[in-house]
Specification:
- The two termini are 40 Å apart.
- The protein is elongated.
- Helix 1 (2-25) runs antiparallel to helix 2.
- The chain has helices at 2-25, 30-54, 112-126, and strands spanning 66-75, 86-95, 98-99, 104-109, 131-137, 157-163.
- 37% of the residues lie in helices and 24% in strands.
- It is α+β, with helices and mostly antiparallel strands and 172 residues long.
- Strands 1, 2, 3, 4, 5 and 6 form a 6-stranded antiparallel beta sheet that branches.
């Protein structure tokens, strides 16, 4: 982590030195030098946005099909303020009963089903039972319109939680 940050700072200093040399010594027209400054500034802003996506900000990608729940924060919708609500989940991908990745923060749109499922899972976690989560599509029968849509019109995934099974011990 620290090495990546130092490498990025070194790359920015090198880029700044190259742009400074181009601005001072190159016989570019003024409008071309101004364009170089604006392009470099835009690259810094894009790199900052990309860096945010890797540094603890919640991912907008879908949750893994099977995950270990570590924590969750629920931000309910507020009609007066005009907010739609969000759910933040901190989870690790599971393979079998074992985590295969480091915990990751996920952001999902608020849904009543997800809210109640997470409340129950967090209550079980406070009682000492690790919770394994999973995703399942909402059931649709016939030609009825889907009842659980997010703001974009996509069907929300239902969250299901159960107690993480005890690991099987190796034979003696």
């Amino acid at each position: 982590m620290t090495e990546a940050l130092l490498l990025q700072v070194f790359a920015y200093v090198l880029l700044l030195a190259l742009v400074s040399l181009a601005l001072i010594y190159a016989p570019f027209k003024t409008w071309l030098k101004l364009g170089l400054v604006l392009l470099t500034t835009g690259c810094y802003l894009l790199a900052y946005q990309a860096w945010q996506q890797t540094q603890g900000w919640p991912s907008h990608t879908t949750l893994p099909d099977k995950f270990l729940l570590h924590a969750s924060v629920i931000d309910e919708p507020d009609v007066e303020a005009g907010t739609k609500g969000k759910i933040f989940i901190w989870a690790s991908t599971l393979k079998g009963s074992f985590p295969v990745s480091e915990p990751r923060a996920y952001l999902i749109p608020y849904g009543k089903q997800a809210h109640s499922a997470l409340e129950d899972a967090l209550k079980n976690m406070r009682e000492g039972n690790l919770q394994m989560g999973g995703l399942s599509k909402g059931s649709q029968k016939g030609n009825k319109p889907p009842q659980n849509l997010d703001g974009i019109g996509e069907e929300q995934l239902e969250l299901k939680f159960e107690k993480l099974p005890d690991p099987s011990l190796p034979e003696k």
